[in-house]
Automatic annotation (TrEMBL):
Keywords: ATP-binding, Nucleotide-binding. Pfam families: 5-FTHF_cyc-lig. It comes from marine metagenome. Belongs to the 5-formyltetrahydrofolate cyclo-ligase family. One of its GO terms (molecular function) is ATP binding. The lineage of its organism: unclassified sequences, metagenomes, ecological metagenomes. PANTHER family: 5-FORMYLTETRAHYDROFOLATE CYCLO-LIGASE, ATPASE INHIBITOR/5-FORMYLTETRAHYDROFOLATE CYCLO-LIGASE. This is 5-formyltetrahydrofolate cyclo-ligase.
Amino acid sequence: MLTVEQQDAAAISLTKNIFQFHGIAGTRRIGAYLANDGEIDPLPAMLEWSRRGQKCFLPILFPGQKPRLRFASFSMRSRMFLNRFGILEPCVSQRVCLDPSQLDWIFVPLVAFDSSGHRLGMGGGYYDASLAVLRMRSHWRKPRLVGLAHEFQRIDHLAVDEWDVPLHGILTNERFYPAPDAAWSATHRSASRP
């Protein structure tokens, strides 16, 4: 378990790496999450995006629906509540939420990852179910999907299931791991460190 100071340092390093990405500066709509249960914290990056006039969105679970995420606009002034998993969400109506396909980037949390860009989530399947339609596209321009993690969450190999939605890469507090088959990854290697 990391100390608060270690978590804060990891979040600052992650934020620096996020802002080394080409194309993120001109992005209008960015999906992220509020860290929970030891996840690496993207909040410093979200605050900077807001300062730069970019819109941040958080995932929302609506009761009684299939495990599908919608995304609600977020700012430090957003009214929040704890969902059924104890995770903070903006308190908004479903009609003002966006589908994942309406976002330019989505930064997703994870439990573990491998250097091939495979992600192990918390086991609910919410991101995979919500992004499943993207697997059917022959040309996938947006949203760009990037997993966020602590470097120590990397493992040698993860099994991949047919329903797993591939990520474009994984960004840690130390470096970027592009997915081998992500054509766009070559232009984003500047966030990698040797």
